[in-house]
Amino acid sequence: xxxxxxxxxxxxxxxxxxxxxxxxxxxxxxxxxxxxxxxxxxxxxxxxxxxxxxxxxxxxxxxxxxxxxxxxxxxxxxxxxxxxxxxxxxxxxxxxxxxxxxxxxxxxxxxxxxxxxxxxxxxxxxxxxxxxxxxxxxxxxxxxxxxxxxxxxxxxxxxxxxxxxxxxxxxxxxxxxxxxxxxxxxxxxxxxxxxxxxxxxxxxxxxxxxxxxxxxxxxxxxxxxxxxxxxxxxxxxxxxx
Length: 241
Ligand code: PGA
What we know:
Glucosamine6P_isomerase; 17% strand; alpha/beta; binds 2-phosphoglycolic acid; globular; 10 strands; 7 helices; Rossmann fold
């Protein structure tokens, strides 16, 4: 486990973007595992910047996102499809046929979860998975009291997650209660993991993840058992370490 403590959000973002960019330079056909939320936004901005400076070429990469809300259209502004398109994909040269995000609106959710897993497998697995962390210790939408053995599956969102994500919706009631998420097994199968965290609100989750015991109550704590995981944490998020 490598822990890099940086000054602030901007430094976290540029370091994370440099790591992703090195990965793509070393292997232009990299399979990137991507995340949504406020934390990776700065990283995506940096990646767009590196792309504009011709320092990175996404022409052959494949991407798999961690999760998507259940029962939401791709075109919906709250969907993670929309988020990824408008915060990254439309500004870089990744071919859209190389982009994968669970279909939260699939008729048969079980089939969709299996399809998603088999697509990841077909590409030889994720080379580097970017993760944020919830204040409750979740990764993807794998909420506290997680089953560490799960693969992509339908999850019920934790009350704290609904509360946290309500900032993107008109009110708390409008936040979907379910989502499709890569499971812990899917995440742990990634060859490398890069977890980024910023702000005091994440300090407790970061502390439990790194210093606590591996515990389903803190889903991210499982990362202690991954053989190639890097945490980039700003000072505020690292304040309880
Ligand atoms: P955030 O979400 O980046 O919006 O804080 C992180 C997460 O819930 O995984």
